[in-house]
Structures are given as structure tokens and as C-alpha cells.
């Protein structure tokens, strides 16, 4: 019992920095998508804004799922669990992205420029986050 409690403390302290960065990136992505949707709404209209919002949400949700899976385990004793959680996180991220894209194209009227523009922007944001936030 003592080992399990100690392992939980180790997991929480070792993954704390990674979780913080992931939360900052996801929070920043949400703000960017909302700002983009507002700008697009006032510039081009509601249908473009909905497409932009859909593209952003479809990029954010899988990133959040991956971040949760990626920072689930930590420590040298858990190295196999860390690697497997990263790989399963990537697989789950791709699967959820594909499912959300299918639902978006089936259920929404997508305007490609706004949709893929916002989607690509959100996918590129993790490259910019280290420059914008002190890590």
C-alpha cells in the first residue's frame, strides 16, 4: 500500500511540468480558435465562422486526449508504461481526429478555407507556444 501511494506522488511530481505545458497549449489553442471564429464571423459571416470553429475543435479535442494519455505515467520504473501510453495516445488521437472529421463532413456544411485554415493553425500552435510562454 505504501508503494502505491509513493508511486502516485512520483507520478504527479514527474509529470507536472509536462501537464502544465500541455494545458497551456490547449488553453491557448481554445483562445486562438475563439478569436479566429469571431474575426471570421465579422469578416465573412456565420457559415465561415462555424467552419472555422469546427476545424479548431476537431484539432483541440484529440490534442487534449493525447495530452491526458501521454502524461499518465512517469518514472524509470514505469518506462514501458510511459512509452506505451505515448503510442496509444497517438493512435487514439489519430482515430478520434478521423472520427470527428467524418462527423463534421457528414453533419455540417464545411467551407474548406475556414475549416482547414483553423485546423492547420491549431496543429501548428504547439510549435509557437514555447516562444509565447515561459516554460
Protein model, in words:
With about 140 residues, this protein is mainly α. The chain has one domain. The protein has helices spanning about 1-15, 15-45, 45-70, 80-105, 110-130. The protein is flat, with a radius of gyration of 18 Å. Residues about 1-10 have low confidence and may be disordered.
- What is the radius of gyration computed over CA atoms, rounded to a whole number of angstroms? 18 Å
Shape verdict? flat
Strand content: under 5%
Q: Bin the helical content.
A: over 70%
In short:
The protein has helices at 2-14, 16-44, 46-70, 79-107, 112-132.
Reconstruct the topology from this structure:
Blueprint: H1 2-14, H2 16-44, H3 46-70, H4 79-107, H5 112-132
List key phrases describing it.
135 residues; mainly alpha; 0% strand
